[in-house]
Amino acid sequence: MAIQIHFEHSGMDELLRTMQNISEENAHKAAGRAAKRAAIAARVAATKRIRAIYTIKARDLKSHAQILLKRDGAILHIKGPMESVTKYKAKKTRKGISVAIKKGNSKLVPRSFEYGRKFMQREGASRLPIRGLYGPSVPQLFGNPEVISAMEERGLAVFEERLRHEFGRLMGGAT
């Protein structure tokens, strides 16, 4: 799943007209650099927001969120399968496996046990079949509306700031 945040480039033509001494190629490079920094900032904001809601580690989130660079933009590509409950807060108790996907919401999984280093659950009353215990995938976590709004807000703010900085640098001065 790729989450794309679109920024309006309608002001780019007007900006190019006002700065005739900057070539179109340099303007696209500046926009690309600003978009990369905005994508990194959006990923950080999303990671912080997800960690405020869910019990997953930041390294597990960032390992599934890849930034793909384009000529004058960047894409934050999030991919990955459902995560084992071991990536979340899960522990073995005397009565079975206790799992907390969201913070402060721990529940005992009925008919669960540990097999090797994996947490399993019996599907019915008999011993077999058994299945692994899984939580939501990383793309599902990034798809939360609260997370998307935090990403858009932070990404847009950083994009505007960095674009201003990059064009100021191309003009020969500081921001």
How would you summarize this macromolecular structure in one to three sentences?
The chain is α+β, with helices and mostly antiparallel strands.
How many angstroms does the end-to-end distance come to?
Answer: 36 Å
- Mean pLDDT, rounded to whole units? 87
Low-confidence stretches: none
The amount of beta strand, in percent, is 25-35%
User: What radius of gyration results from the CA coordinates?
Assistant: 22 Å
Description of the structure:
A 3-stranded antiparallel β-sheet has the order 1-3-2. Strands 5-6-7 form a 3-stranded antiparallel β-sheet, with no helix packed on it. The protein has a 3-stranded antiparallel β-sheet with strand order 8-9-10, with no helix packed on it. It has 2 domains: 2-82 and 138-170, no CATH class; 84-135, no CATH class. α2 (24-53) packs antiparallel against α5 (145-170). It is of the alpha+beta class and 175 residues long. It is elongated, with a radius of gyration of 22 Å. The two termini are 36 Å apart. It contains 5 helices and 11 strands, in the order βαααββββββββββαα. Helix content is 43%, strand content 25%. The longest helix has 30 residues, at 24-53.
